[in-house]
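F.,

This is the one I mentioned.
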């Protein structure tokens, strides 16, 4: 993957830039995602973060709820190394290298399988969502969170205002890049809903993340 074409694994310079500039500035959004993912979740739950990147969401989940088990997987060995360092010695958290298209995980293992801004990187999103369904327990939840193709300029401005190392006079560049290359290769709620149905999941909820260029779809197996 490179900065202008989203397909593929993060690695090398692109991974370093993303972790430093974007992920390093949106910690409050990760905490909001944790609130969303932990809704009504029993203490003995197992969660899988598919396409975990640098491990920001998985680490926040495991730190917030020490009684749940969290596993993060990513195709990029460099990102898994970063995630493992970020998670430190949390006993309820583990990161592995794995392929969303063909997971080396037994079926019916997790209560919640989620993906945060990873679907647009997959060569075959439907295959990845079918894998999410396979490893999810019966009646478990599958959650997709992705950049919104139909996001507004105001939403993009609000999101990119959190990015680090952009001088005030160059914030427009971050907003332009996000809309032109990231959101444009994201999804609409309609597209994610159709993928959920094709994967054989039951749609539960669709929503826009308030004031952000992000969308979320929740389904059940």
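My design for it:
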């Amino acid at each position: 993957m490179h900065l202008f074409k989203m397909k593929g694994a993060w690695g090398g310079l692109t991974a370093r830039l993303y972790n430093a500039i974007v992920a390093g500035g949106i910690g409050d959004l990760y905490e909001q995602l944790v609130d969303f993912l932990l809704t009504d979740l029993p203490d003995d739950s197992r969660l899988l973060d598919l396409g975990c990147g640098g491990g920001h969401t998985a680490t926040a989940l495991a730190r917030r709820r020490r009684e749940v088990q969290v596993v993060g997987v990513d195709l990029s060995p460099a990102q898994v190394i970063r995630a493992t360092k970020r998670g430190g010695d949390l006993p309820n958290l583990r990161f592995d290298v794995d392929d969303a298209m063909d997971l080396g995980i037994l079926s019916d293992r997790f209560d919640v399988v989620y993906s945060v801004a990873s679907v647009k990187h997959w060569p075959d999103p439907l295959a990845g969502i079918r894998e999410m369904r396979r490893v999810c327990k019966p009646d478990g939840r599958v959650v997709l969170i992705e950049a919104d193709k139909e996001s507004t300029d105001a939403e993009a401005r609000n999101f990119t205002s959190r990015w680090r190392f952009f001088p005030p006079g160059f914030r427009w560049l971050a907003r332009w890049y996000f809309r032109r290359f990231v959101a444009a290769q994201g999804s609409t709620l309609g597209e994610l809903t159709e993928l959920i149905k094709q994967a054989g999941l039951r749609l539960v909820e669709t929503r826009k993340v308030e004031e952000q260029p992000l969308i979320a779809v929740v389904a059940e197996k």
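Residues 71 and 94 are 5 Å apart (CA to CA).

Talk soon.
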